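Page 42, continued from yesterday. The earlier attempt failed because a stray header line got pasted into the input along with the sequence. Redoing it now with the clean sequence only.
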Amino acid sequence: MRRALLLLALPALAMARDFPAEGEECIAANSGAGSVQCLTELYYQSNHELRRLEDRLVAQSAQRLRDDRITRTHHEQAVSSLRDAARRYAKYSERQCDFEVGYSGAAASGAQQVFYRCLLRLNQGRRDYLLAALKDSD
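This time it went through. Structure tokens are written below.
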């Protein structure tokens, strides 16, 4: 029983990550190049979490379709729009963070730190949005 409770708690723990705060820890604990490597890994982890949440929303939409809570047209619109938003979000966030690098005037590893800190901050906001959408559709 304890093991089952622990397994049930794991997804909640994974969702509780604060990627921007972890990024600050990367910078504090590592040199320039090491911090960039750490930030890059955190960024990939945050992207993975976004994909996982998007997949959960798609699955939840499919369940709503099976339960006759939405029509097939609505399900297809929701899935198509979510996937399109994810693609556009990735492009938007990279351009936004390119702006931050340029505006900051940072160079070398400092520029990469600015870039990845920005991406982590934006991904945290999208993650919060996706979590709210999951909660609202229950």
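Notes: The longest helix spans residues 32-66.
Reminder to self: strip header lines before submitting.
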